[in-house]
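User: My collaborator and I are trying to settle a disagreement about how two of our proteins should look. Neither of us wants to argue from intuition anymore, so we agreed to look at predicted structures for both before our next call. Could you fold the first one, then the second, and keep them clearly separated?

Assistant: That sounds like a sensible way to settle it. I'll keep them separate. The first protein:
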Amino acid sequence: MDERAGPDGVTLYVARDEAERGSEAPFFAVFEGPGRTERWGYVCGNCESFDTAMDTMGRIVCTRCPNRRKPTEWDAVHE
C-alpha cells in the first residue's frame, strides 16, 4: 500500500489493489492504517485527489475532475 499525507496531515494508506471502476480512471480504497481495518474513503486515480464523495446508491464522484462511477444500486423511482 502507498503511504500518503491526507487532509490535515493525517497519514493515509492507498490500496492500489482495491479499485472501483471510474469513467476516467479507477477509484482506489483508502485506509487509516496499514492493517486495512478502518476504511477512510477513496482516492481518485485520475487526479490523485482525496476529494471524493459517495452517495447512498454507490455512486462515487471526484470533486476535482470529471471522474465518476455509476451507481451500483438502482431505485425504480429514478428510471
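The second protein, kept apart from the first:
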Amino acid sequence: MAEQRNQSIASQSIWTRVRGAFHGPVLVGVIAAFVAIALSVFGMVRNPEATPINLRSLFLVVVLAGGSWGLIAWAIATAAVEAGKDDIPD
C-alpha cells in the first residue's frame, strides 16, 4: 500500500504538487506576486537609467512589488470566498 502511494506521488507533475499545496486565495496571491515581480524586473531591464540593476534593487522588487501585489490579491480573493459563503435565509 505504501509503495503504491509513493509511486503515485512520484508520478505527479510539479504543477499538480504545487496546486495541491497552494489552492484558492493563496494561489491567486502567489500568481499575482510572480506577475508583479516579472513585470518589475522587465521594467528594470528595459529602462536601466531609472533603476540600477543590482542585488539590492532585485531584493526590493521581490519584497515591495511581489509582496504588496501578492498580499492585495490574496486579500481580495479571500474576501470574495468569504462573501460567497454567506447564505441568505429563506
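Some points you might bring to the call about the second protein. The chain has one domain: 23-85. The chain is about 80% helix and 0% strand.
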